[in-house]
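agent> fetching stored inputs for the pyridoxal-5'-phosphate docking request
agent> found them:
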Amino acid sequence: MSTLSATLSSITAGGPDGWDLHRRAMRMIAAGEPVIPLSIGEHDIRTDPAILAAMDAAARGGRTGYAEIAGTPALRAEIAARVQAQSGVVTTPANVIVMPGGQAGLFAAHRAACDPGDVALYVDPYYATYPGTIRAVGAQPRSVIAAAEAGFQPAEDDLRQAAQAGASQGRTRSLLINSPNNPTGALYSRATLEGIARVCREADLWLISDEVYDTQVWEGAHLSPRALPGMAERTLVVGSLSKSHAMTGSRVGWIVGPEAAIAALDALATHTTYGIPGYIQDAALFALQQGAGFEAGIAEPFRRRRAIVERVLARTTSVRAAPMRGAMYAMLDIRATGLSGEAFGRRLLDEERIAVMPGESFGTAGAGHVRVALTVDDARLDEALSRLVALAERLAAPA
Ligand code: PLP
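agent> prediction call returned; pasting C-alpha cells
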C-alpha cells in the first residue's frame, strides 16, 4: 500500500482510544452474558414512529434525489427560528448549515477555524472524538484542564494561559467547549461562559460551542455563548437531533455561525458530503416542528434517572456524583476506593457484570472517576448503581 497522509494517520495517534472496556462488555453481551451496559450515550428508546412516518412519506413522495446541500430552506428556517428563540440572537437561514450529524459539524467547524499546524484548544474531560477531530483537520489539539474540584468548569486564567502558550508553538485559532457536558454532566455557568468569551475576544479565537445536549438541562438554564457580547461573529454552534430527538442513526445536525462562515462551509459540504438526504431533512423538519414539549418528553427519562443516582448515592460516602446539571451521564468519583477509574471499571465488569466508561478515557481530569450513561431502564439502573456502590464500599473499607 502507498503511504497514508500524516494527517489521516494521526487521527487516533495509534494509541488506545479508551473504549477497550466498552468493547469487551459488548463482546460479553454478544456471548450471552448478563452485562448491564452503562457505557454508551445512546437512548434506550428508538426514534418516534411519527418521525419515521414523516421520513417514509418523504422518501415515497420522491425526496430521494440530491437535496439542497446546505439544507432545505424550510429546515434551515426552522433551525434558525429555534436557535433565535432559545438564544435571543437574531438568526436567519443564512446563519445555518445542515450537517450529517453533530460530529460532522465538529469536523467542519474546525476545518473552518484552523489551518494545518494551528493550535486548537479543547477542555479536558472531553468527548472522546475531540482531539482526533482536531487532528483530522491537521491542527494541533491542546487541552485545558477543568478540574473535578471546580465542578469541571474551565478557569478563565487557564484558558488564557493555554491560548498564549499555544501561540509560541503555532497560531491558536479556536476553543472547543461543550455545555451541557459529556462526560461530566456539568452545565457551564454564566461566569464560566463570560470568562470563555473574554479569552476568545482577547486572543481572537473562534469559539466552537458543542450544544448537542441543549435539551437536557436539569438545573439552571442553558446559555449559548453565541449570545454574549461580541461573540456571534466568532462562534460556531454545533447542534444535532441525535440526543434531543433520539435520532442518532439519522445523522442530522447543524452549524450556526456568521453568514460568511456558513457560505464557506457550504463550499466545503459541496466538496465532501454533498449534503444529507432530502427525506432525512424532511423528517428532521417534522421532528423540530413537534416543539419543546416533545423534546422534554425525550429528555424526561434522564431527568428521572438522575434522581435515582442521587437517591442511591445518598446512602454512601464511597462514591460521589459530580453535580449533574445536564446531559445523560453521571460522573462518579470513586477515588475513595484507591483505584483508578480504569481499574474500578475493570473490576465492576469482571465482578458485577456492569459496563461503565473509565474517567481516564475522557482525559486526565477524569481520573479516579467512572462515567455512567443513564441509558437503561430505571430498575436496571437502580440495581446497577446499588451493585456499583457495594463494590466501592468493599474496596474503600479498611482491610
Ligand atoms: N458532541 C458530544 C458531546 C457528543 O456526546 C456526541 C455524541 O455522543 C456528539 C457530539 C456527536 O453527536 P452526533 O454526531 O450523533 O450528532
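agent> quick read of the result: Residues 297 and 358 are 29 Å apart (CA to CA).
agent> awaiting further instructions
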